Amino acid sequence: MIKKLKRHWMLLLMLLPALIYVIVFSYIPMTGIIMAFKKYQYNGGIYLSPWNGLNNFKALLISGKLFQVTRNTLLYNIAFISFGVVFEMGSAILLNEIIHKTFKKTVQSLMFLPYFISWVVAGAIIYNVFNFERGVFNNVVTSFGGTPFDLYNTPGAWPFVLIFLKLWKQTGYGSVVYLAAITGMDQEMFEAASIDGASAWQKIRYLTIPSLLPTMMILVLLGIGNIFRGDFGLFYQTVKSSALLQPMTDVIDTYVFRLLIDNGNVGVSAAAGLYQSVLCFITIMVCNKLVKKANPDYALY
Fold first, then answer.
1. Mean pLDDT score of the chain
2. pTM of the predicted model, to two decimals?
3. Which three-class secondary structure string do you get for 244-274?
4. What is the number of other CB atoms lying within 10 angstroms of the CB of residue 297?
């Protein structure tokens, strides 16, 4: 062991900065989870505040919001992952089939552009388009004699709006990953299929899609690892703090934020954050185990 350490001391020295970075920024902050078990006092800080047992978790349970925000977070992420896979993979395959390079680059750039637009700007666009009194959508509808639609007083419409916005932003970025995987495929396989008379659809169905499965599984597993984490920017900047819309749009992240900002309850918000992290950890471990059992090549580790 000592001989190996001496032999590879240069490699270990190169590893040291990354190791220090992970310890300082990933593991030391984890000690803050003890706030979930403390009655936080500003003069005592994180470590000197008195212990509070499981009272923060009890307060979280009796709030009556925990099931609602957990359900919303889970269902929204299932929709994001499911539709995301279909749209990202489909876009990548279609882009790969485009022969005209200029048109292909233009389409790809336009698809990639929404990724760089912040949720603050996206929320402002949605508000200006669907504002009941002055929105562009209702002005067009009323000019044709239609009835204006009040999106911000229609909770049932928001799941569709949020799913659309998420796909609008992530499809271009996600398709790049699949497009890179397609580019790295063995082209002789496609040439052999063409010689055998395979059509474009047959090559997509029997060659491209099966070859993309490992990439898809890795991306899905990474998505499942965050299945109990909501996109805070999406849910907060587009919905704002509308109490009417919260039953359909409130997720764990926005709930924790409101607990901290509106109520100043650091202990309960820390308990909610720990609850969220434990759920994510259990989910990714179970899913990775199942995938590893079915096909070890598709597992993350």
1. 88
2. 0.85
3. CCHHHHCCHHHHHHHHHHHCCCHHHHHHHHH
4. 10
